[in-house]
Amino acid sequence: xxxxxxxxxxxxxxxxxxxxxxxxxxxxxxxxxxxxxxxxxxxxxxxxxxxxxxxxxxxxxxxxxxxxxxxxxxxxxxxxxxxxxxxxxxxxxxxxxxxxxxxxxxxxxxxxxxxxxxxxxxxxxxxxxxxxxxxxxxxxxxxxxxxxxxxxxxxxxxxxxxxxxxxxxxxxxxxxxxxxxxxxxxxxxxxxxxxxxxxxxxxxxxxxxxxxxxxxxxxxxxxxxxxxxxxxxxxxxxxxxxxxxxxxxxxxxxxxxxxxxxxxxxxxxxxxxxxxxxxxxxxxxxxxxxxxxxxxxxxxxxxxxxxxxxxxxxxxxxxxxxxxxxxxxxxxxxxxxxxxxxxxxxxxxxxxxxxxxxxxxxxxxxxxxxxxxxxxxxxxxxxxxxxxxxxxxxxxxxxxxxxxxxxxxxxxxxxxxxxxxxxxxxxxxxxxxxxxxxxxxxxxxxxxxxxxxxxxxxxxxxxxxxxxxxxxxxxxxxxxxxxxxxxxxxxxxxxxxxxxxxxxxxxxxxxxxxxxxxxxxxxxxxxxxxxxxxxxxxxxxxxxxxxxxxxxxxxxxxxxxxxxxxxxxxxxxxxxxxxxxxxxxxxxxxxxxxxxxxxxxxxxxxxxxxxxxxxxxxxxxxxxxxxxxxxxxxxxxxxxxxxxxxxxxxxxxxxxxxxxxxxxxxxxxxxxx
Length: 673
Hints:
By secondary structure, this protein is an alpha+beta fold. The protein has helices at 2-30, 36-62, 69-74, 81-86, 92-113, 119-141, 169-183, 185-197, 202-233, 244-269, 273-295, 311-332, 348-380, 388-411, 419-442, 448-468, 483-519, 625-629, 631-642, 646-653, 666-672, and strands at residues 522-529, 533-536, 539-551, 554-564, 570-573, 576-579, 587-589, 591-594, 598-608, 613-622.
């Protein structure tokens, strides 16, 4: 019963998406408003079907309906309820079904919020998004169908992948990453609509910018939580290894970050319109590439939990997207004529352009290093390995350049600068940066890149904090709609700017933590007998023996390690090895003692009950926790930038109320600006 209902809902979603995509695109290209109500109905139907199908699957998992193929594949009566529910996204078929749920939610929310705005674009945008929905609904109904029947019905199942039930972060990390990936569908639809119309007005740029920022935030959280999961679960003494699947999530993050900076130039100087839309399109294409890399099984990765045969289908879709995007940019791009020009190489718009070029260079570097082994194997028949040294050598200088530009950009003015004012603006931040560098060197820190990073972090932090407290100013030259309207516009920009600088502080925190934990990590290992002590970084670790236990879904063996910190405080860590029925190899859980200054990280590698020994790996990571602690700053800054003020702005400016007419391009368009 569950299988029949769930599959029927998927087919319903496919029908709604197909109908809505056709009506939306055809009506939009004909510039007819008659089909818009039907497109909205198709959106509601697609979303309802995707939600319903996912709820049916959750019900099948919770009730252990092993007649459903996916439940028989990942379900188990011994698995705790929380991991039973999250096993929805623990394998290929379930993850694509979950993808459909998020896509339906995104499209429905976008349609509801903007249903009375942007009439010139909405049918084209929703039609494009539903066309993407057609592809994923087709995957769920065909190559990645989770609803197949199983006969005979097994009494129990193997449970989800052990790696996915070894830490609570797996409850949060995949949904955040999917919300980031799928969220890029919305700006893709918005950008395609702008290109099909051959115009991109200020009002239409607003949802493009906001929805990209929403997806960017979720993608950022997903990447950080994924690094935290790798750190807290795998026990290898790290959080980022330039794994192909890690890179898959990093690539669209880079282009989306470049896009959000580019929109500032487009908004302020009427430049980079085509470039900005290209970045929006590239971000979506890279999410599809990332999904292909994650779910096709062509890469060997600890993050890739499936081998599948959907690779060719994804490649066809990816090829179609590339042709579509290049064709649109070539044919419709020339219509997006820039209205401004670069006034000075020492202007803010110039710094943002350089910032964009650096982000794109890093993107290309990471993409090349990730795909080169596959290209080499396809062309030469030889698989080569591209490891951390390549990525670090190429990406670290780019990261330092980005950090430098984060400080320089806010100081530079729009247009031509005044040299004397510019010098005054740079004096204090530069002095602070030099003092920080000298202080780090004085306490014994060495290394060109780390010292540059710490000095630039001080430089950027001073500038960012100064900009955070800068008052809102309204230039007389910008008061085209009167003082109140100019003040309102300036306040809206100030809100976005304030949120952006809070995010910058979070990024600085991440960069400093990565530099410190990578350059100054300490490591040792050893095999200890009961009572023996090993030292590292001022810590003394005494092996007290083994303990074992049993949980509903696993058994474990842990080593008791008594830790005496440099300050004399005594605590105990219990790194462990977890044993799952489905896995022949144990899954480790390291013991971590966290402080703001550093983490003591102890991993149990092997043990011998007969000999009474335990083999352990030990690391001391400076400042590594700052990576995870950056998440509140990223969330806070993004929420500040996104917080709606449109109604207040419209009322203050004396503009007509947005949404007075469901399908009028004029007043609704102006109100949304």
